[in-house]
Amino acid sequence: xxxxxxxxxxxxxxxxxxxxxxxxxxxxxxxxxxxxxxxxxxxxxxxxxxxxxxxxxxxxxxxxxxxxxxxxxxxxxxxxxxxxxxxxxxxxxxxxxxxxxxxxxxxxxxxxxxxxxxxxxxxxxxxxxxxxxxxxxxxxxxxxxxxxxxxxxxxxxxxxxxxxxxxxxxxxxxxxxxxxxxxxxxxxxxxxxxxxxxxxxxxxxxxxxxxxxxxxxxxxxxxxx
Length: 225
What we know:
Elements: H1 6-11, E1 19-21, E2 24-25, H2 31-35, E3 42-44, E4 52-59, E5 65-73, E6 79-80, E7 91-98, E8 103-104, E9 111-112, H3 117-129, E10 132-133, H4 139-157, E11 166-172, E12 175-184, E13 187-193, E14 198-205, E15 214-216
Parallel strand pairs: 6-10
Antiparallel strand pairs: 1-2, 3-15, 4-5, 5-7, 7-14, 8-9, 11-12, 12-13, 13-14
Region (Disordered): 1-25, 66-86
């Protein structure tokens, strides 16, 4: 399976946007983690004029940065899927994943799975799920629900040509680029590849994906830690 392994992603800091308790974001990494990445980071392009903020980076066992996320708009908090109202959050999170073939692990004892567009799709899908749970569930049941839905997200990400995905073209560094796109009751998820050695995943709620554009982040300090 080409998708980044679920166990590995959880060890490496979990899905982007993960939270430890309701409404309290997980501890964020400093900008140093982003600066250590050997690949370019992507965010929304200059057409987006709202708030930008850092989230988390995911690392391999040897400390190599493999992926990370950057937020745009309202900072999401965990909310039930049935919540509505004028305070509804509007956000888009962009996940950058280094494109890598199957490779030896840092300690030389095994191999690491390839990272593909499916990897970006799964990280984005898991990130969106981490911000939501059904209104009828209490906190004690949320972990079971999240495990089940994450499994579904993983399977969907591994079948990007399936009926649950549609095609969407969005600009990446000004160049029209094909993406895989799907919507759910919790928000939307998309994933595609760039010409600069990374895959892009994104998820959001309250902000349409159809008008988005992506570009390389030239100045990481424009994102708040």
